[in-house]
Write a structure and sequence with these properties.
Elements lengths: L13 E2 L6 E9 L7 E19 L3 E7 L1 E6 L2 E6 L3 E4 L5 E5 L3 E8 L6 E3 L6
Antiparallel strand pairs: 1-2, 2-3, 3-8, 3-9, 3-10, 4-7, 4-9, 5-6, 5-8
GO molecular function: metal ion binding
Protein name: Cupin 2 conserved barrel domain protein
Keywords: Metal-binding
């Protein structure tokens, strides 16, 4: 495929498939189905929505486009707001907690194992 054109409003919102997630939806905008070697996803979280501590083999970049959140990565905690972004390497534990309505884009690479392991840990 030479190109792919769409609109975010046309992409269905699905529950985030990470055990323990609360108030979070995901939209898969660009994937290998369009011929890409990476995926672009949009996440929407309700105020106090949570994506719990987890790890995976793929790298990701999170770009905040609306709201504020707490991001726990490795053993550190950061406050991110609209315009901030963070790169998280493979196998680095992380979690996101929305402080208000939150929207962000997340770009990931495709690896041999796309599974996600939820950790029984809270943010530090």
């Amino acid at each position: 495929m030479d190109f792919y054109l769409s609109n975010i409003s046309q992409v269905p919102k699905e529950d985030v498939p990470i055990k323990g997630t609360k108030g979070a939806k995901i939209q898969w905008l660009i994937t290998k189905n369009e011929g890409a070697h990476y995926a672009v996803r949009k996440f929407s979280l309700e105020k106090m929505g949570v994506i719990p501590m987890h790890v995976h083999k793929y790298q990701e970049t999170v770009i905040i486009t609306k709201g504020k959140c707490k991001v726990c990565v490795a053993d550190k905690e950061f406050e991110l707001k609209e315009g901030d972004y963070i790169f998280i390497d493979s196998q680095v534990k992380h979690a996101i907690i929305a402080e208000d309505e939150l929207e962000f884009f997340c770009v990931i690479d495709y690896v041999d194992d796309m599974s996600i392991k939820t950790l029984n840990e809270d943010c530090p």
